[in-house]
């Protein structure tokens, strides 16, 4: 391993304590999103009596847009103020969220909670990603991202299951949201007192990379153009990330309402909502290191196609509603587990360490804009053609996205 006079070394083994701590912190971050997966769409329809699908899904749109723009600036802020400071800011923005979700007197307050949650997630999750990449070095980057996303999305799924259980026994509010208070307090305290900043590790890696025209410190607009459309690899990755989260945004809003209309109870919906992110999360423990071994592109392409199969199972109701929902969610989870760490690692492979944090921010901007686009698409399509067609449309778009990666992306790792 590379080493400096200050004994700064790159690698998971060399930095396992800080890496493990960041995994724990990201579990708290993911749990905050899991608070909303099962219950909040039902709060809109059952408690606030909202009839419009677009209005019900507006909390996802607000979350996705705000998180996307926060991702965009998070890398710049991290380079200016350190990763640790931005992580702490993320938790401070998240502190009011569980209280607002539990006691909001109107839907507008739910929307405000999701604005804060979007900022919180954009800062906190982005920093756990950047900090793990800083520590891991290039050799174990796929494994690092697999462990990071496994922790975060595993917590999303388990929290979705727990909130569904609590809602079925105690009602939609406030009890399901109390666990969010614990997440924010534990995450904030760990980030302030135990987590260490990792920017010096990125600086070390930058010194080991051969200098070329892109190795300078470019401005955000240059990085935005390079990541969004100028670089073929980064374009392919960014559009795949957007469509991947379009699926998640669609399922986030559609599944509770769709399966409730089919007669599935709250606990059943909780299981359907939990299976997707749990399989997605746990699966990345395998797919992360697999991306280091076989490359990023095969996992991205075939992961998108497996997600398409999940849409087919759910959208055409091959089984009883609960069974169809569970099998389809497992397939969506497997496909997403294949895609997620490979996409993050592929961005890191292509972007120079000097502008990697900003490039990851741009990628995550497009990826998380998918939440908003997926919810908006689902709301519009659902209002005119029914919620099943929202599932069909998402499947068609996902298939096209996989073809784009297949044709345009090239491996960037040695």
Brief descriptors of the model:
single chain, 414 residues, Growth Hormone, Chain: A, 81% helix
Multimerization status: single chain
Strand content: under 5%
Number of strands: 0
Query: Which structural class is indicated by helix and strand composition?
Result: mainly alpha
The CATH architecture would be Up-down Bundle
Helical proportion, percent range: over 70%
The CATH superfamily is known as: MFS general substrate transporter like domains
N-to-C CA distance: 17 Å
Q: What is the typical, i.e. mean, pLDDT?
A: 90
Uncertain segments are: 1-5
The major β-sheet equals:
none
Can you tell me the CATH topology?
Answer: Growth Hormone, Chain: A
Number of helical segments with 4 or more residues: 17
List the domain count as a whole number.
1
Order of helices and strands: HHHHHHHHHHHHHHHHH
Shape: globular
CATH class: Mainly Alpha
InterPro entries: MFS, MFS_dom, MFS_trans_sf, MFS_Transporters, Sugar_transporter_CS
Organism: Empedobacter tilapiae
Keywords: Cell membrane, Membrane, Transmembrane, Transmembrane helix, Transport
Protein name: MFS transporter
Which secondary structure elements does this structure contain, and how are they paired or packed?
Elements: H1 16-37, H2 40-47, H3 53-56, H4 58-81, H5 83-94, H6 97-103, H7 107-136, H8 141-170, H9 178-193, H10 199-208, H11 220-230, H12 232-261, H13 266-294, H14 296-315, H15 321-350, H16 356-385, H17 387-408
Structure in words:
It is found in: Cell membrane. Keywords: Cell membrane, Membrane, Transmembrane, Transmembrane helix, Transport. The protein is mostly helical and 414 residues long. The protein has a single domain (16-207, 218-408), classed as Growth Hormone, Chain: A (Up-down Bundle). The protein has helices at 16-37, 40-47, 53-56, 58-81, 83-94, 97-103, 107-136, 141-170, 178-193, 199-208, 220-230, 232-261, 266-294, 296-315, 321-350, 356-385, 387-408. The radius of gyration is 20 Å and the shape is globular. 61% of the residues are buried.
